[in-house]
């Protein structure tokens, strides 16, 4: 080889060339940019469609299969899969890496817009989104306590811990999973409501109007201007019992006469476990 002959006949030249390549490599290595979280675009499009009250079988036949058949005609699809849950359809379309993610999402939207015309009126508007790895949590924290109830721990986590975490540098969002939030529940008494001729709409309207804060204008003086606001929001659960829902024979009908107010909690929609014990999970997403 010519390169071998030159190196043998000119050892000094070969040595200098190797040294030059070594210096150039070290110089380039020091300036080589390395990104911890590179911005990589994945050509994956997700279509989520809600069908309230429908069984997984109905969701599969009425929504998922129709969306799959429409999307399958798009060129460049690598894999196409769907998942049908109770009241929810999720269709995932993965395209070849050579396909522009924005263009792929637009093609999917056009196909879904055509097929959604044939859906039942109970089906909600399909949501077409692009898969973004940045939306996945990078850290998950578990919060548990031996002295606080799950509801108290949820309130502490939601009002204190999450707010402090979200102020940290690099944190975009913190999502709570497995918590149980406080909820004031009002259980109506049908027999008492019928005897007092009180309707459900009257109860709802009274509770909504009596539990709010309203602006009342401003008071202006020569030195300053102060805003006036009516503080009407209920602070304690027992105060709901004193809400007047109607008047019969000139006498007020209180909420306590037609309903029972319970300081309870929301229905549990998620659960987080660590070593078999209930905890509250905080999924942290980077900014």
Structure description:
This protein has 287 residues and is of the alpha+beta class. It folds into 3 domains: 44-133, Alpha-Beta Plaits (2-Layer Sandwich), CATH 3.30.70; 136-181 and 268-286, Multidrug efflux transporter AcrB pore domain like (Alpha-Beta Plaits, 2-Layer Sandwich); 182-216 and 228-265, Multidrug efflux transporter AcrB TolC docking domain, DN and DC subdomains, CATH 3.30.2090. It is built from 8 helices and 14 strands. It has helices at 2-9, 11-30, 56-71, 101-115, 150-166, 190-195, 200-210, 255-258; strands at 44-50, 77-85, 88-95, 127-130, 139-143, 171-177, 182-188, 214-220, 225-230, 244-248, 251-254, 259-265, 272-274, 277-286. The strands form 5 sheets. It has a 4-stranded antiparallel beta sheet with strand order 2-3-1-4. Strands 5, 6, 13 and 14 form a 4-stranded antiparallel beta sheet that branches. A two-stranded antiparallel sheet has the order 7-12. α1 (2-9) crosses α2 (11-30) and α3 packs across α4. The two termini are 55 Å apart. 16% of the residues are buried. The model has no long low-confidence stretch (mean pLDDT 84).
Index terms:
287 residues, alpha+beta, Alpha-Beta Plaits, Multidrug efflux transporter AcrB TolC docking domain, DN and DC subdomains, 14 strands
